[in-house]
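Listing S7. Sequence submitted for prediction.
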Amino acid sequence: MTEKHTVISFYKFVNWGGISKRKKRLESFCKEREILGTIILANEGINGTISGKEKNIGEVIEFLKTDPHLKDLEPKYSYASGETFGRMKVKIKKEIVTMGLRDINPSQITGRHIKNKEWNELINDPNTLVIDTRNQYEYSIGTFKNAINPMTNSFREFPKWIEENLGELMTNKKKVAMFCTGGIRCEKASSLMIKNGYEEVYQLDGGIIKYLEEISESETLWDGECFVFDDRVSIKHGLLEGDFSLCHACRMPISEDDIESDEYVEGISCPNCFGTHSEEKKKRFAERQKQINLAKERGEKHIGKIYSNQSKALK
């Protein structure tokens, strides 16, 4: 029987230092408890998604909260059948979510956090512009009613999209409502909006994950599934594992219909990337898929680059 694992995602913007020492202590603590996933540390804060046995995850949370900067950390919980990551990594980066702007400080100011029940009312208001701050491939498998798709491939592109499009989009609108998977991208996006002079800026508290956990399907304004950055690929209401898989060639989510397509070859191509890879790449992909299949036959997990979507979405 496959063992159920607890998955938590968390972040907090804080002004702190000593991240090299924090990295060593945190990495050691997690590995001792067989925790898997990725945690990013930067001078602006912490951002992570990890999984493991419930008891061990609880110990990690308590360890994090011993730091005065993180005493009010509020992880978001979900569950998975089996391991969801291939390894444990603690990384040091310039930003915990990469926007590429130095003068944005979410630890000082962000948009107003809106709880799930209020959120439905807010995005139904014709005076509200609803913006999905995630990337294009995340939007493609699920989003909120009335949400604008900025068509970005990385979060770095979001400030430019705001600069070029928001003025026109805000015509006859008074409020901006923003959302993302867990809330972290909205923190920076809303901080940018306020810096640019927009006053009524709101963000979904806890992100899509919290919404899918707490709002029933009969009340929902969410359509589709939510992309997550681990082996589950997507989740549905009640945080149940979704129906999407991952193309190991282009790292994009694929549906059952995509898999039935003539353009799908396991590990080599899908309708999203068919015809875009060189023969050399396709040979390399085929060899990788062979190794994945051999690992499955041995009852092992192949650890390669298939987990790169976790950091890709936030770049």
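Caption to Listing S7: primary sequence and predicted structure tokens for the chain studied. The longest strand covers residues 4-13. The mean pLDDT is 91.
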